[in-house]
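debug: dumping io for the single-chain case to check the tokenizer round-trip. Nothing else runs in this session.
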Amino acid sequence: MNIRWNQIAAAVAAGVLMGALFSDYYHMHLKRRPPQPVPAEGAIEKFTRELGLSGPQQEQVSAIFNKYRPEVKKTKDSIQPRLEELRRRIKSELRIVLTPEQYARLEELDNDSKRRENRPPPPRDGEDPDRRAPR
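debug: decoded output
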């Protein structure tokens, strides 16, 4: 058997993507537990609460987050197309294995997951939801 490392890497990547694809299904349909509320606090508020940040520390932590935000966005944006391509290839192979009904249900679950990902976060206490910047 002549297995190449790129085949192993592709199999691992496919496994990770399949896990991500079906984890939402598992949590929403098989565990049958109510959905957890999304916290209405941001990172600074959570750090302040969890770590007991002082006022000056809050400002410094916020400045650090703002400093790296463009780099994080750039990294996320650069990897997203590759993940989408892998996901598309996995789904094309699944289409061969699944019945039309199963594949339609998979598409429905995938669309539900995408809708939840694109939903804006809930407004914070006292914040006007119409003034929130889109994600």
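debug: round-trip ok. The chain has a mean pLDDT of 76.
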